[in-house]
Amino acid sequence: MSAEDSPLIPLEGTEMAGGGGGYPLPVYLGGLAIACLIAFAVYSFIFSKTHGVAAAGPTFIIAGPSGAGKTALFTLLRYGEKSTTLPSIEQNISTSYRLPSLPDTAKPFVLIDTPGHQKLRQSMFDVLQVSQAARTIHGVLFVVDASAVSKPEKLREAAEYLYDVLRVTEKVRGGSDVLVAANKSELFTAVPAKRLRTLLEAEVQKIRETRTKAIGKVGLDGEKEEEEDGDSATVGGDGWLGLRDGKPFRFEDLESDVMVVGGSVETGKVDDWVGWMEERAVN
Amino acid sequence: MIDYFSVFTTGGIVLWQKCYQPVSANILDSLVADIFIEDRRGKAGSDSSMTKDRYTVKWTSSNDFGIIIVAVYQSLLQITFIDELLASVKKLFTTLYADELKAKDSDHLPVCHFGDYFDVRYAELEKSTAGRKPVSAVAAAAAAADDAEEDSEDAGLKSEDLEKDELEPARNGAGSKSPKPLKLSGLAKRGGRRGGRGGSKSASPMSRESSNGDDSSKKSAKKKLRKWDADGTARDVSDDEGPLDFSASKKANGSAPDDDSAVNSQLLEDADVSKWGSKTKSGDFVLKDLSSEINSILASSDEKSDNSSGSVLSSGFGYFRNIIGSKVLSEADMENALNGMKDHLMKKNVAPEVAQHLCDVVRKSLVGTKTGSWTSIEKTVRVAMEDALRKILTPSTSVDLLHEIQRVKSGSSARPYVISVVGVNGVGKSTNLSKIAYWLLQNDMKLLIAACDTFRSGAVEQLRVHARNLKKLTEREGGKIELFEKGYGKDAAVIARDAIAYGNEQGYDVVLIDTAGRRHNDTRLMSSLEKFAKYANPDKIVMVGEALVGTDSVQQARNFNAAFGPNRNLDFFLISKCDTVGDMIGSMVNMTYSTGIPVLFVGTGQMYTDLRTLSVPWAVNMLMS
């Protein structure tokens, strides 16, 4: 390349010097400025493509209600240490997350920790939808505080959020894998993973009952029907999730693979979750 | 004094924190959520402080680094230097750890050993204010004792406690006297303050001295400052000359004629020496270096911010940057876009107060950030505004009425679920009540409608017509609805209570209570709502507000929200007549902004079926179109 390049430069130079007689200097300066501008523009345009992080590479998303331990899990996975945390206001994004078992040469993962507060969940759905559309999603880690679900309202909150997540993951053919990470298992009040699974299933069952009967959303009258004939048979526009066979809701009915696995960020017991991610990583 | 101080990222990762008093994690979480997510800062709350329960929170943030700095302390205390402390911590933190913070996606958490810096700065500020503010002797003593404890803990010098305790009375004496000589002259004033500080108390005398030196030589170059530093230390060790130089002059200027302070300084000197004995030499060096470093950082960032303003070249370049993007936003850049946005919102019926607040939120969230590539300022502001609107309109807890009714119905103590509607005259309370009733009837609920508008003639009859219609509509599907009425002129609260009792007896699922319309600024009418809330104790109080009303909706929502007594609020809004305003749905924003209570339902027409739940994306679209 360099051999080819080097004769070019003087050539250009001479041409410019030769033609220079016809035009005043400002024209050249202006041309140069425009050239620089274009170069910069092209550069920044390419750079801007990396902004759609979730679409850029294989992605894992951490979701879940507030106070479940998402950000602590994020720092534990990414930096190997658990950070003290306060409620997140924005996402934490890492574009170079490497799973321990994979070789260093493998493409790093995008790990996104999303805020759990109800008012900020939209950002999580945006990211999820983007990554599903780009087929970069490898899994959703839905973190739940297993010690809090003994309170009905906490269980309800977790189930409602999970329900909304599943409604999005079911939209694509084959679904996306969801790991319900039952965090804080070190606590005395923590519910074991199996029990959490039945609790969540029962709650999702209730939610889909009431959601179906709920009043429709304003401004979306026309879209309801469109949604209904989506790809997947397991999610209807009316909020129905799972099979319409009159049986109680089960996670198995979904196209997405939903697993409930216990663990604890506090004590560093996250191997099972990492294992789950590694399984999904190779797909 | 301060219970909790912390620096954390917007992502929620705590970079550095200091806990003086244990504050439960729940409280901290809810404080952060209230302030930064729900934006509930109280009416009187400025944009940098909030008081909740017994805590006061002050904060500052740096958008370009994505960090937030908060200080939490007991509301009882008046800490005058908090703002200064926050500002200087922000400067220090962003200067010291700029690389760590800017490094996107490094392989470790940003490491911030900020503790020493903070302690030094904290002590400095505390001293500078101790002389300034008129503190009662008791309070001062308490504070001094507090700090003595803390600092001695920090230095690991438990043995010194005794000495300090001895010192305290003397310190307090000097502390309360020192404000007097402040009125001397410019220079003396400075010194006087120092004197006050020195006298008031000192847990770490070395830091005090160094701070004195730094402050007095602040105007001179940095280098000189450092030079003195080394000199001072050297002399410190050999004899008393170094520290005395400064303390002597300052004492001469300040509380000079006071024998008290002379003794005091003597005592301090002793404490000083003993500190030397127990503390490693290197440790002391660190302390001194820090203090000067802090001051140089604070001074330098001042210069920087001065330099950055106004240059023809940069403004010309800024124009291109606006097109290409990647421009660091300043307040001035956004002014135009924000003004346009404000006008736009006000055209959509958003109250000026609310529009201004939204613009402030956007300005705050954007200043110091970079625009994305190929994104103009206008676009950036627009996106941020959409976010702000979405944040306001999205409820912070989801309301699933059917689920709650089921729960109450099937609970251990089964009782009817009580929903009551309130609102200004003629907004459509009865109409929307019957719309809700229709929906509940569709879901096989047994309904009792209580006619508690005992004031306006025809109100009961109106409800009777609704009840009859609904009965006819749903009879075939087995709907059950009945009207509970007691005529006119009776007390609404009593009727409501009777209705609920009746409903309970007869096994109704839901009792819907209609109330009389009332003007929100009529205290006589509004005051009866408190009694109503107490007697009827509804599960849900719905305020019906019309989309047609403009700026007044802010006050309506506020007054109704406050009318039910200190322990009861509205639960959600129902915005009626949305079909009549097109996209001018600003009242929704007004009402949610002023109370933090979500809009659940939207009335969109004249039919029983014309009730919808609010879709936030729809509302945001409407408002931004």
TrEMBL record, chain A:
<keyword id="KW-0547">Nucleotide-binding</keyword>
<keyword id="KW-0342">GTP-binding</keyword>
<protein>
    <recommendedName>
        <fullName>Signal recognition particle receptor subunit beta</fullName>
    </recommendedName>
</protein>
<keyword id="KW-0472">Membrane</keyword>
<dbReference type="InterPro" id="IPR024156">
    <property type="entry name" value="Small_GTPase_ARF"/>
</dbReference>
<keyword id="KW-0812">Transmembrane</keyword>
<keyword id="KW-0675">Receptor</keyword>
<dbReference type="InterPro" id="IPR019009">
    <property type="entry name" value="SRP_receptor_beta_su"/>
</dbReference>
<keyword id="KW-0256">Endoplasmic reticulum</keyword>
<dbReference type="Pfam" id="PF09439">
    <property type="entry name" value="SRPRB"/>
</dbReference>
<comment type="similarity">
    <text>Belongs to the SRP receptor beta subunit family.</text>
</comment>
<keyword id="KW-1133">Transmembrane helix</keyword>
<feature type="transmembrane region" description="Helical">
    <location>
        <begin position="25"/>
        <end position="46"/>
    </location>
</feature>
<dbReference type="InterPro" id="IPR027417">
    <property type="entry name" value="P-loop_NTPase"/>
</dbReference>
TrEMBL record, chain B:
<dbReference type="Pfam" id="PF02881">
    <property type="entry name" value="SRP54_N"/>
</dbReference>
<dbReference type="InterPro" id="IPR000897">
    <property type="entry name" value="SRP54_GTPase_dom"/>
</dbReference>
<keyword id="KW-0342">GTP-binding</keyword>
<keyword id="KW-0256">Endoplasmic reticulum</keyword>
<dbReference type="InterPro" id="IPR007222">
    <property type="entry name" value="Sig_recog_particle_rcpt_asu_N"/>
</dbReference>
<dbReference type="InterPro" id="IPR027417">
    <property type="entry name" value="P-loop_NTPase"/>
</dbReference>
<dbReference type="InterPro" id="IPR036225">
    <property type="entry name" value="SRP/SRP_N"/>
</dbReference>
<dbReference type="Pfam" id="PF00448">
    <property type="entry name" value="SRP54"/>
</dbReference>
<dbReference type="InterPro" id="IPR013822">
    <property type="entry name" value="Signal_recog_particl_SRP54_hlx"/>
</dbReference>
<feature type="domain" description="SRP54-type proteins GTP-binding">
    <location>
        <begin position="598"/>
        <end position="611"/>
    </location>
</feature>
<protein>
    <submittedName>
        <fullName>Signal recognition particle, alpha subunit, N-terminal-domain-containing protein</fullName>
    </submittedName>
</protein>
<feature type="region of interest" description="Disordered">
    <location>
        <begin position="143"/>
        <end position="262"/>
    </location>
</feature>
<dbReference type="Pfam" id="PF04086">
    <property type="entry name" value="SRP-alpha_N"/>
</dbReference>
<keyword id="KW-0675">Receptor</keyword>
<keyword id="KW-0547">Nucleotide-binding</keyword>
<keyword id="KW-0472">Membrane</keyword>
<comment type="similarity">
    <text>Belongs to the GTP-binding SRP family.</text>
</comment>
<dbReference type="InterPro" id="IPR011012">
    <property type="entry name" value="Longin-like_dom_sf"/>
</dbReference>
<dbReference type="InterPro" id="IPR042101">
    <property type="entry name" value="SRP54_N_sf"/>
</dbReference>
<dbReference type="InterPro" id="IPR003593">
    <property type="entry name" value="AAA+_ATPase"/>
</dbReference>
<feature type="compositionally biased region" description="Basic and acidic residues">
    <location>
        <begin position="227"/>
        <end position="237"/>
    </location>
</feature>
